[in-house]
Amino acid sequence: MSEHTNKQFSAELELTRSSFLQMGGLVEAMVQEAMEALVTGELGLVDKVRERERDVNRLEVEIDERIGLLIARNQPAAVDLRLLLSVSKMLTDMERCGDEAEKIAKMARRLHEAESRYIPAVELRHISNHVVAMIRDVLDAFARDDAVHAATVVRNDKEVDKEWKAALRHLITYMMEDPRTISRSIDLIFIARSLERIGDHAKNMAERVIYMVHGDDVRHTGVKATERIARGESPDDIDA
């Protein structure tokens, strides 16, 4: 690879990283705005979420095409190839986070336009705070090549799962106590489920960051083993 080609490749690689971070920032804002629309009834935020979704989809296509060209034209070294392959996988998870945020925004609009008087389950706010932090943390870990920080996102997904189950129990109890709340409670269950899925996608991305940094596939290895691998230690004899 000539010096000129090498510089061009490095610039394209950095553009790929920055574009993915930009996409992640948009998705993080979408989740926050969708939940704000749900809690406050400020439905202008729903339109903002949908506008951001179009930008997210555009970035996904642009980044994916750039990755394909970079691999085909440059035959990158192992560390650069891991970066490109990791971003390619994370693109799908990040785009799906955006899809879930748009679903939440649409349900928020439906609930408020139906003039449903309700107080959103407290757990929904807790879950949304957790998953927004997970997206932010995975982007930070990616930007800094920080596998240890990425491993905290994998662990935090366990907390989101607990919050999801608590919200489900709360809403089922709510429906049983007052059958008139069944319709809106079902919508809130779907919102909680969307938030839980965002947490799953953030965990997937965190696992990809660890692969990007160390070259180890930590999927299905358990949280404790993932944390040891992220620190550069052996995962032997560690259970989840």
From TrEMBL:
<dbReference type="GO" id="GO:0005737">
    <property type="term" value="C:cytoplasm"/>
</dbReference>
<dbReference type="Pfam" id="PF01895">
    <property type="entry name" value="PhoU"/>
</dbReference>
<feature type="domain" description="PhoU">
    <location>
        <begin position="21"/>
        <end position="107"/>
    </location>
</feature>
<keyword id="KW-0592">Phosphate transport</keyword>
<dbReference type="InterPro" id="IPR028366">
    <property type="entry name" value="PhoU"/>
</dbReference>
<dbReference type="InterPro" id="IPR026022">
    <property type="entry name" value="PhoU_dom"/>
</dbReference>
<dbReference type="GO" id="GO:0045936">
    <property type="term" value="P:negative regulation of phosphate metabolic process"/>
</dbReference>
<comment type="subunit">
    <text>Homodimer.</text>
</comment>
<comment type="similarity">
    <text>Belongs to the PhoU family.</text>
</comment>
<feature type="domain" description="PhoU">
    <location>
        <begin position="124"/>
        <end position="209"/>
    </location>
</feature>
<dbReference type="GO" id="GO:0006817">
    <property type="term" value="P:phosphate ion transport"/>
</dbReference>
<protein>
    <recommendedName>
        <fullName>Phosphate-specific transport system accessory protein PhoU</fullName>
    </recommendedName>
</protein>
<keyword id="KW-0963">Cytoplasm</keyword>
<comment type="function">
    <text>Plays a role in the regulation of phosphate uptake.</text>
</comment>
<dbReference type="InterPro" id="IPR038078">
    <property type="entry name" value="PhoU-like_sf"/>
</dbReference>
<dbReference type="GO" id="GO:0030643">
    <property type="term" value="P:intracellular phosphate ion homeostasis"/>
</dbReference>
<keyword id="KW-0813">Transport</keyword>
